[in-house]
Design brief:
Elements lengths: L1 H25 L4 H18 L2 H8 L4 H8 L13 H12 L4 H15 L2 H9 L3 H9 L1
Length: about 140
C-alpha cells in the first residue's frame, strides 16, 4: 500500500514540475492556466495519434497527466485536425486562450523536456505537416 501512495505523491510532485515549466514558458505565474493549456494540448494531441501511439505517449506521462490525457477519450470519435487554424481555434476554445500559437509552442517545449526524444519524434511523425509546424514554431 505504501508504495502506491508514494507513487501518487511522486506523480503529483512531477505534475507540478510540468505545470511550473509550462507557466514559465507561458510567462504567467498562474498554474490554473498552465493546467488548462496542458490538458487541452494533451487531449488534442491524443486525438491526432493512433491508439497505439497515444498509449505509448501516455506511458511517459505522470499518473495525474495520464488521467487528464484519457479524460473523455472515445477512440471511435477521434476528430483528426489537418489545418493550422482549426487546431489553434479548437485549442484556444478548450484552454480559454487568446494566443493559442504561443501556448502550443510552449506546451510542445515542455512535453519535449519531459518525454524521451524518440517518443517525441514518433508523436510528431504522426501529425500532418501543418499541425507539426504549429507545435514546433507556434
Amino acid at each position: 500500500m505504501l508504495r502506491s501512495v508514494d507513487a501518487i505523491e511522486r506523480s503529483a510532485h512531477k505534475t507540478n514540475e510540468w505545470l511550473s515549466d509550462l507557466a514559465d514558458e507561458l510567462g504567467t505565474p498562474d498554474k490554473e492556466e498552465a493546467w488548462r493549456v496542458l490538458k487541452a494540448y494533451l487531449q488534442l494531441l491524443r486525438d491526432q495519434l493512433t491508439i497505439d501511439e497515444a498509449a505509448q505517449l501516455a506511458a511517459q506521462l505522470t499518473l495525474v497527466l495520464r488521467g487528464a490525457f484519457y479524460e473523455g477519450f472515445d477512440p471511435g470519435d477521434q476528430q483528426k485536425l489537418r489545418d493550422r487554424e482549426e487546431f489553434l481555434s479548437r485549442f484556444a476554445e478548450r484552454a480559454q486562450l487568446t494566443d493559442a500559437a504561443h501556448a502550443a509552442e510552449a506546451a510542445t517545449n515542455v512535453l519535449r523536456r519531459h518525454i524521451t526524444a524518440g517518443e517525441m519524434d514518433d508523436v510528431l511523425s504522426q501529425l500532418p505537416n501543418k499541425l507539426r509546424e504549429v507545435l514546433l514554431q507556434g
